[in-house]
């Protein structure tokens, strides 16, 4: 959970910076460089800052925890233990671990990471950029427009594309969130993080 919250906090900081820069008439070279880097990170074409704002947003903690639990067998899967892969992301070119039960005609692997946080970061980037999760981003943006809290249970049904089981998958996510009261973790913030220590010292 701390990794999920830390990534969300980083994204929210970036969002604030983007809001400020979007309203500026002139940006410095450093600010332009930051914008270029973020457009690249979120795979936004033609410098579209509105699209960047839609993509640059949090994944509710409840969803991130439920998917991690589901995809990694509550952290016990071979992929999680050998490759810090807690979200079961597929790769055809990157570093990965071949599934033992993979069909002979398939050649995907499960993406492997040096540290857990890298897995969380890649997962968030996947939901925030892949065309398969556009419905998720659109619904999240509508909640933002209405100044509503971004709650996991309101967004789970937009994640049918995450697994081959489709709506069966989203039902399981809802079940994991509800049974484990994961919505309780949505308002959690990190206390005593490096930034706060720097600010107070």
Which key terms come to mind for this protein?
201 residues; mainly alpha; 2 domains; three-stranded antiparallel β-sheet; 9 helices; 52% helix; globular
Describe the structure.
The protein has 201 residues and is mostly helical. The protein has two domains: 146 residues, no CATH class; 35 residues, no CATH class. Helices cover 52% and strands 3% of the residues. The protein has nine helices and three strands, in the order αααααβββαααα. A three-stranded antiparallel β-sheet has the order 1-3-2. The longest helix is centred in the first third of the chain and has 21 residues. The protein is globular and about 55 Å long. The two termini are 26 Å apart.
Total individual domains:
2
Proportion of residues in extended strands? under 5%
Order of helices and strands: HHHHHEEEHHHH
- Overall outline: globular
Structural class of the helix and strand makeup?
Answer: mainly alpha
What's the end-to-end separation, in Å? Answer: 26 Å
Major pleated sheet = 3 strands, antiparallel
Strand order of the largest sheet: 1-3-2
How many helices? 9
Low-confidence stretches: 196-201
DSSP strand tally? 3
Give the oligomeric state of the chains in this entry, treating copies of one chain as homo and distinct chains as hetero.
single chain
Give the C-alpha Rg.
18 Å
Helix percentage: 40-55%
Q: If you average the pLDDT, what whole number results? A: 92
